[in-house]
Amino acid sequence: MAEFRPSTPSTTSLLDRQHGFTLIELVMVVLIIGILFGLFYRGSSTVLYWRQQGALREIRELMQFLHYQAVADQAFYRLEFDLEKNSYRVGALRPEYEEDDRLAEISQDAGRISLELAAYLNPVLGSTHTMIPPPGYPSLFESKFFPDDMSVTSVKTPGKEREKSQGGKAYIHFSPRGFSEFAVIHFHLYNDDPVTLVDNPFTGLVTVYPGFRDFEWTYGKKNKGDK
After folding, report:
1. Distance between CA atoms of 134 and 69, rounded to whole angstroms?
2. Minimal CA–CA distance to 80: which of 98, 95, 62, 96?
3. Which residues pair with 185 in a beta bridge?
């Protein structure tokens, strides 16, 4: 005689269903925590601090990159700061035809670094050049903005300094001869703490100093006691 047994869900089926409900609940909990975390920390000083630290790291690494990339591409690069829009971008300098001979003469003199530095300080050099997108990195030509409550207060290069109150643009140049223009950049952060960036023209290294620090370019200058 056949024995009748009621059908029951298999143990595997029950475990799968229980596991599925547990996974959904876990996802919901994580989602809720993420939403609460985002609402709580959005715009907080902690998040803003790390954004600004990230921006400082990016500009430092960019300057070091341009120092060596100018040599690799055998091109003059310019880092442009827009003090009014609180942004920066990178371009390559394309000389006008009447200045080609002058640049060639400068580039051939391997023993006098000061010649190129003097050329940078000559306003004629900047006025007869066109800033174009870097051929190998055209995206660097697009303006990139600093985070909220962070701004460049001044950019200082040999013989020239531009402050935010003056508006306009400030420039730092990078030579294919293997050195960059000495520059001191002052930043203002969200908590009123100033930060100073200083580059080494010969090594390309950029140092970040907490607080406001002033530096002078003394290469090639004579001491008062020297004749």
Report:
1. 10
2. 62
3. 155, 197
Helix axes 100-108, 113-121, angle to 10 degrees: 150
Assign 3-class secondary structure to 82-144: ECCCCEEEEEEEEECHHHHHHHHHHHHCCCCHHHHHHHHHCHHHHHCEEEECCCCCHHHHCCE
Whether 218 contacts 185, CB under 8 Å: no
* pLDDT surpassing 60 at residue 105: no
Closest CA to 140 of 220, 59, 200: 59
Residue type, 155: V
For 115-167, write each residue's pLDDT tens digit.
555 554 443 444 577 899 999 999 999 999 999 889 999 999 998 999 999 99
Domain boundaries in the chain?
Answer: 47-210
Cβ distance 67 to 50 under 8 Å? no
Nearest to 105 by CA among 121, 173, 123, 95: 95
The pTM (predicted TM-score) of the whole model is 0.68
Query: Domain 47-210 carries which CATH code?
Result: 3.55.40.10
Judge whether residue 112 has pLDDT over 60.
no
